[in-house]
Amino acid sequence: MTKSVMFYVQHLLGIGHVRRAAVITRAMSAAGLDVAVVLGGRDVPGADFGTAALVRLPAARAADETFSVLLDENDEPIDDAWRDRRRAALFSAYERIQPDILIFEAFPFGRRQFRFEIVPLLEKLHSLEYRPHVVSSVRDILVRKHKPQRYREVAEMALAWFDTILVHGDPGMVTLEATFPETAAVRDRVRYTGYVMESKEIAVSEAGKGEIVVSVGGGAMGMELLRTALAARPLTRAREYPWRLLTGPNLPVNCFREIKALAPQGVIVEKSRLDFHALLANCRLSISQGGYNTVMDVLKTGANAIIVPFSGADETEQSFRARLLEERRLVRLIEAEDLDADRLARAVDAALEEPPEGNKELDFSGAATTARIIAGLTGVSGKSRLR
Questions:
Q1: CA atoms of 9 and 116, how far apart (whole Å)
Q2: pLDDT averaged over consecutive 10-residue blocks of the chain (387 residues)?
Q3: Total domains in the fold of the chain
Q4: What is the CATH number of the domain that holds 258?
Q5: Is 95 found in the same domain as 140?
Q6: What are phi and psi of 160, to 5 degrees?
Q7: Does the predicted TM-score (pTM) go above 0.85?
Q8: Do residue 174 and residue 249 come from a single domain?
Q9: DSSP strand E in the chain: where?
Q10: Would you say residue 8 lies in a domain?
């Protein structure tokens, strides 16, 4: 009998969570699982969930990088009535799907703002005689929490509600302990999958050949890097090379127009490219932020790369990962607070003269391994995990 999977995915600002979830979803479908993805954010262009069923909850997004204010589908701050509507929609989705396996992307290690709907669902499940196997799907590195007691709260929720914690990373690069001090409490549930990345072969083309490619992921927080790249270009020895700026689908329209207006001859400005992997494989140099998916794309293609990690508000994940990669001589790093045109220009010249080199023997089987682990799970007794 085919196992059914319900995969809860809520993104708030960037698009990386959704695209990683899409890769995992396609791998699970390919493994013979019947997958339904419950999406709580706005549409992400290019996110391909394959044959999986898509269930859309009322959409929410973060107003800015502080994540302190959430906006609904009409860009109004969410309120209790909206929360009630979301909770009812999530419960209805669960009742329709009746999954054997229930996966939460990020929670309880992230998405704290959505406890209002997730915790009641988990409480309901634990009253059942037979319930689905509950899984947390998290990336390799967590955002630092300023209140130490929060780590214990997360561990307690994981112990109370979750059977398996899938960490999409390679312990040879970094272990969960590095950013989650309470790992010992949940160690028996942790399984590393390797890094999740697209498995498609890179199409042979001339796209991006000889270019400097500047990309900012979804683009919501990419304006500073785009402006700085334009200012740095005439200061580099690469000033005569073609430069391509990919602004991302979430860069505000007025910002996109500004970058287009500032771009001189020899600079191409586009929102996104479906052949991004080919651009990276062919380019002289990639300059990008340091999100999980972009880093995986850089490593997959072997691109010569400069990483300028996003570190707004309390975001620490990108900087942590970029430093690990720099230590392995896989990339060059410029911290966001150090970014200016002169520094970027010097880094461009240095990277072109001496591309980073290092050990690329990392586990990139994350999607297939996740699918294999999920396929091997079964539902559990409703009383087996009560604490």
A1: 15
A2: 93 87 97 97 88 96 84 94 97 96 97 96 90 96 88 96 97 95 97 90 81 92 95 97 95 95 96 91 95 90 93 81 92 95 98 78 92 89 43
A3: 2
A4: 3.40.50.2000
A5: yes
A6: -75, -40
A7: yes
A8: no
A9: 4-9, 34-39, 53-56, 61-62, 70-71, 101-105, 130-131, 133-139, 164-168, 190-192, 212-215, 243-246, 267-270, 285-288, 305-307, 332-333, 380-381
A10: yes
85/126 same-domain check: yes
**Maximum Cα–Cα distance across the chain:** 68
Give the H or E element holding residue 315: none
Please give the angle made by the CA atoms of 164, 38 and 1, to the nearest 5 degrees.
65
Q: How many other C-beta atoms lie within 10 A of the C-beta of residue 84?
A: 12
Tokens linked to 291: 């999100």
Range of the domain at 258: 212-353
- Pairwise CA distance, residues 377 & 387, whole Å: 21
Reference 295, options 46, 27, 16; nearest CA is 16
Residue-wise burial string across 357-373, b where 16 or more C-beta atoms lie within 10 A, e elsewhere? eeeeebebbbbbbbbeb
> Which residues have C-beta within 8 Å of that of residue 226, sequence separation ≥ 6?
214, 216, 245, 247, 251, 255, 259
Residue 110 identity: G
Cα(193)–Cα(196) distance, integer angstroms: 8
Query: What distance, in Å, lies between the first and last C-alpha atoms of the chain?
Result: 31
Beta-bridge partner residues of 104 = 8, 136
Those residues whose C-beta lies under 8 Å from the C-beta of residue 144, and which sit 6 or more positions away, are: 179, 314, 316
**DSSP-H helix ranges across 131-287:** 148-161, 183-186, 223-232, 253-262, 276-282
Of 134, 171, 170, the C-alpha closest to 5 is: 134
Say how far apart CA 65 and CA 313 lie, in whole Å: 6
Position 338: which residue type? D
Give CA torsion, residues 242, 247, 249, 251, to 10 deg: -160
Same domain, 25 and 173: yes
List the structure tokens of 98: 């009746």
